[in-house]
Design a protein that fits this description.
380 residues; alpha/beta; Peroxisomal Thiolase, Chain A, domain 1; 17% strand
Length: 380
């Protein structure tokens, strides 16, 4: 995908427990900010793709009232009911079709108006799992964590260490909702227990917010300063929760392998400068190290212990704080793309990592990371 589609603008609202404004005003704020960042007007947009969900918004056709605030009045417009990283894929394909040159992608959600993990239960098998009220996104993640710990030998201390790293990183990110400067594994491990071995600080906090980016075709990108190019992309969908092993992220590996093939990445551990991973739970970051090819299978704990993924390590992961710093459903994966692009352009502020030329960004949807999306981004 050499210089076929580029990111030419991005914006994020603050991620907060309660935005205290309507969804429409929140989306309008993000849309205005991204257009200003890209230096374009609404009239120059060819297509708009939003990421939002009927269950989370509490209404069918949940994008119906976002047409005007998202700038899509009398424009080609659609939505994707998944993480924003998948909405970005849809926009990329629209540009690659040749029918559009400039696309806006926007992800949003307001956890303050829906009942926590209850919408996720609707993804379960309706004939058995949903009826029994034993499984939900958190209890299923606990099964995933336990399976991974048994297979790899990873400890609760190592999982807590990942959370502490990200929460400390989030303290340097002005849009993060949850941050703890100087966080340590003991504090994470001692936080409120949820489902063993998961504690509150190991789980990404649901919050309100929106983020958006502008994509341009290779031809259109010539007019923009510092375009960030999509070097490769890959996506994969795994089997249902009870029909797949939970100790690996097989669909993430498939997505990464496809993405790396397009981007010419043969050894991710040496060719990638930084990664932004959508970790709904701290243990998923360790699993992602392996699936993304940063280390050998079942060696995620040792890779973390080496210090490689710290801000000053050889391959920083989630310098922004990741989803453990802020998890807006339908937007968190798109935020990972934005944070990776900010690093490449040297615009990440206090959480900037020096010398980032190639970055990986990851998005996921579904219980226990059933669907995964991977991008490799690069500068000029």
């Amino acid at each position: 995908m050499d210089k076929e589609v580029a990111i030419v603008g991005y914006a994020q609202t603050p991620y907060v427990a309660d935005f205290n404004e309507s969804r429409e005003m929140m989306v309008l704020q993000a849309t205005r900010a991204v257009l200003e960042n890209a230096g374009i007007k609404r009239e120059e947009l060819d297509t708009i793709v939003t990421a939002n969900n009927d269950y989370l918004d509490g209404r069918t056709i949940s994008n119906m009232r976002l047409v005007e605030p998202a700038g899509s009045w009398r424009k080609n417009e659609s939505k994707v009911e998944m993480d924003g990283a998948f909405a970005m894929l849809y926009a990329v394909t629209r540009i690659l079709s040749g029918d559009h040159d400039i696309a806006l992608v926007l992800g949003e959600s307001q956890a303050s108006v829906y009942a926590g993990i209850l919408p996720g239960i609707m993804m379960l098998d309706p004939t058995f799992d949903r009826q029994r009220w034993l499984l939900n996104e958190v209890s299923a993640a606990a099964l995933q964590a336990s399976a991974y710990m048994d297979a790899s030998g990873v400890s609760e201390d190592q999982i807590s260490g990942v959370a502490a790293k990200n929460l400390d990183n989030a303290s340097r990110n002005p849009v993060a909702m949850r941050s703890i400067a100087g966080a340590d594994a003991k504090k994470v491990k001692a936080s409120r227990p949820l489902y063993s071995p998961i504690t509150e600080l190991m789980m990404a906090p649901q919050c309100d917010g929106a983020c958006a980016l502008v994509l341009a075709s290779g031809k259109a990108a010539a007019r923009f300063e510092k375009p960030v190019w999509i070097k490769g992309l890959g996506f994969a969908h795994d089997s249902y929760l009870t029909e797949r092993p939970l100790d690996t992220m097989s669909s993430l590996k498939m997505a990464a392998d496809s993405c790396y093939s397009q981007a010419g990445i043969e050894d991710a551990s040496s060719q990638v400068d930084l990664a932004e991973v959508y970790e709904r739970f701290a243990h998923e970051e360790l699993m992602a190290y392996e699936a993304l090819g940063f280390c050998e299978p079942m060696k995620g704990g040792a890779f973390f212990d080496s210090g490689a993924t710290k801000m000053d390590g050889k391959l920083p992961v989630n310098a922004s704080g990741g989803a453990l710093g802020a998890n807006v459903e339908c937007a968190a994966g798109l935020a990972r793309v934005i944070e990776a692009a900010m690093q490449i352009r040297g615009e990440a502020g206090d959480h900037q990592v020096q010398g980032v030329k190639t970055a990986v960004a990851h998005g996921q949807s579904g219980i226990c990371a059933q669907e995964n999306m991977v991008y490799v981004l690069g500068g000029e």
